[in-house]
Specification:
The structure holds two protein chains of two kinds. Chain A is an all-alpha fold. Chain A has helices at residues 6-23, 27-44. Chain A has a domain at 1-22 and 29-42. Helices cover 61% and strands 0% of the residues of chain A. Chain A is elongated. Chain B has one domain (18-220): Four Helix Bundle (Hemerythrin (Met), subunit A). The chains are: A mainly alpha, B mainly alpha.
Amino acid sequence: MTARAWRPVGFFVLMMGFGLRLDSDWQLAAWGLLAAGAVGVGLGSTDSRAAFVPPRGGR
Amino acid sequence: MTVVPEDSGEPADALIGPRVRWWYRGVIAPLEDALVGWRIHPDALTWAQLVVSILAGAAFWTGCIFLAGWLTILAGTLDVLDGGVARRNGVAGPRGALVDSIVDRWAEFATFVGLGAYFRDSWVLLPVAVAAFGSQMVSYTRARAEGLGIEMRTGGTQRPERYVLLGFGAWMSALVAHLACGLGGGPTQFVLGLAVTLLAGLSVWTAVDRARAAVEALGRGGTT
C-alpha cells in the first residue's frame, strides 16, 4: 500500500473518530480512531503530490 | 495527477461536475490501486457498502448524525470503488452490474429507514419519504428506459449527488447543532431537514425529467 493510499483511509478514520467523539459515549474508541486517523493522514502526507485536478488541457 | 478527460462519460447536467468527480477519483485512486493489488473481489466492496449503509441508517436512527453523515460518504466511496476495481481486475460483467444495482437500492433503503425513524415525530418525515421514493424512481426510470433500448444520460441528481447532499448535510447539521445547542434550548437538526427536503425535490425533479426524456426519445426512436 503506497503512502498516498493512506491519505483517504486516514481521513475517513479521523472523521469517524470525530463522529464518535461528538455523538457517542465511546470516548476511548473515539480517541483511538482520532489517533489512528492522524497517523494515517500523516503517512499519506509524506507523498507531497497534490490531490487536485488541473483545468482541461492540463493548464 | 488526474486530468479530466474531454468526455468523462458523466451526464452533462449532473449537479456535481466532472472536475469534482475526477478530483475525488484522484484522491481515492491510490486506495483503488491497493485494492486491485490485493485482488479484493468487487463483490466484497459491494457488500461492504450495504453493511456501511445499514450502519449509517442505524446511526441516523440513534441520532448520531455526524457519524451517519460520514458513513454515508463512506458508502458512496465504496460504491465508486467497486466498479473501478471490477473493471481493473477484469471481472466486470452483467452479473456484477446486476448485483451492484440491487445492493445499491437496498443500501439507500437502509439509510432512508434510519432517517425516517429519526424524524418520525417531525414534518421532515414527509420529505424523507419523498426523497426515498424519488431516489428509487430515478434509478427505476433509467433501468426501464435502458431495458427499452434508450441510452439515458440525463439526470442532475444521481447517486453521487444523493450521497454528497445527505452525507455533507448530516455532517454540517451535526456541527451546527453542536455549536448552537445552547441557543435554541437543545440540539436540533434543521440543516439535515433542509438537506433532505432539497434532496426530495431534486430527486423527484430528476425522475420526472428522465421520464420526460425517455418518452420523447421513444417518440423519436433515438437516444436521450
